[in-house]
Design goal:
This protein has 103 residues and is an all-beta fold. It has no helices and ten strands. The protein is globular, with a radius of gyration of 13 Å. The model has no long low-confidence stretch (mean pLDDT 89).
C-alpha cells in the first residue's frame, strides 16, 4: 500500500474490464489533480498503463509491468514495483454527501 497526499495506491490481484485513461494536455498520466492548486499526482514508467473501470470510470487502476514512479509538486516521489494496483482518492464527508478531498 502506498500513499501520496490524498491518493492511496493498493495492490490488487486482478484488474476488472477497463479502458485506457487519456493522457492530459502535457502527455502525463494523471492519478488526481488538485482543484485548488492545479498540482497533480502523476505516474509514469516503462509500459505502464493507467486504466479506468468500464462500469465505473471513477475507479482507476494501474498496470505496472516493470516499475513505476508517482510524482507530485509538493510530495516526495514514490516508487512502485511491478504489479497491478487500484488508485483510491481520499474522500471527505460534508453534510449530505461525500466528495474527493480538495487540495
Amino acid at each position: 500500500m502506498y500513499r501520496q497526499g490524498d491518493v492511496l495506491i493498493v495492490a490488487v490481484g486482478e484488474v476488472p474490464a477497463c479502458a485506457p485513461v487519456p493522457r492530459d494536455r502535457r502527455g502525463r498520466m494523471v492519478l488526481a489533480r488538485g482543484e485548488a492548486t492545479g498540482h497533480a499526482h502523476v505516474i509514469g514508467g516503462p509500459g505502464l498503463q493507467l486504466l479506468a473501470d468500464l462500469d465505473d470510470p471513477s475507479l482507476m487502476f494501474v498496470d505496472v509491468p516493470e516499475y513505476g514512479r508517482v510524482t507530485h509538486e509538493e510530495h516526495g516521489p514514490i516508487s512502485l514495483p511491478a504489479g497491478k494496483y487500484r488508485v483510491v482518492r481520499q474522500r471527505e464527508y460534508i453534510p449530505g454527501a461525500f466528495r474527493p478531498v480538495a487540495d
